[in-house]
Design goal:
endopeptidase fold (from Nostoc punctiforme); 6-stranded antiparallel beta sheet; lipid metabolism; membrane
Length: 233
């Protein structure tokens, strides 16, 4: 007999939801802290130019940033801390998973400037890989960098409307777009349309609540399925 693929797809959806907001698996005994980034000089930044769009492919998602020159990258990350303090020293510390997840729930983020090592965390870096998708829409490199610099600081976070990909496409191409969010929403719609699995519907409802920052204790997951489709469509 053929196994029902919907529960497997729902499980993948939940995993992808966490990866889309950049949650990284932590080693045992890490206490919720991120592992240290590679040492300075790990990346050859001589091939990067100010205003370049940097991509770091992960297992199921891509993290994006705008290179500002002098080993500095502006990128958007969910983070609860800017909602409580304006102390730049505290905010500039490496974002832990706890800060990140709370930022997703409260829809709080910051556009921060980090070294290439802190931004990429050992991953391979693609440069201006998205230019081929936008053709004549590419803005000047200096314009892209200036847009990124102007936006540095606390900002709202939304998986659907304001994530790291929206940030970089606005800076380099003039319009906020997120292709991986579009793929995520298509996965959600595929699972919801398949009525063979009640479990899948519940999981999608829970994923919607986490994604949209809503209170699961007061709302049944199934109520949010049509709402999520409306938001995603």
């Amino acid at each position: 007999t053929m196994k029902n693929p919907v529960p497997q797809a729902a499980s993948l959806l939940l995993e992808k939801l966490l990866l889309l907001v950049h949650v990284r698996p932590l080693p045992a005994g890490s206490g919720g802290e991120q592992p240290p980034p590679p040492a300075p000089g790990y990346y050859d930044t001589s091939c990067f130019k100010r205003g370049d769009l940097l991509e770091v492919p992960r297992t199921l998602f891509i993290h994006f940033g705008i290179y500002l020159g002098e080993n500095r990258v502006a990128h958007l990350m969910p983070d609860i801390l800017p909602a409580f303090t304006g102390d730049r020293r505290q905010i500039q510390q490496v974002v832990t998973n706890k800060r990140l997840i709370l930022g997703v729930i409260t829809k709080t983020a910051s556009i921060r400037v980090d070294t290439v090592e802190d931004f990429a965390y050992g991953g391979s870096i693609l440069v201006n890989h998205m230019d081929r998708l936008f053709e004549d829409q590419v803005l000047g490199s200096e314009e892209a960098a200036r847009r990124a610099e102007k936006l540095v600081g606390a900002t709202a976070y939304s998986l659907l409307w304001n994530n790291c990909e929206h940030f970089v496409t606005y800076c380099r191409y003039g319009a906020p777009v997120s292709f991986q969010t579009d793929k995520f929403c298509e996965t959600v719609k595929m699972i919801i349309r398949d009525q063979r699995s009640v479990l899948a519907s519940v999981l999608v409802g829970l994923a919607s609540i986490v994604c949209l920052g809503l209170a699961p204790s007061t709302t049944l997951p199934t109520i949010f399925i049509p709402f999520f489709l409306w938001m995603a469509g």
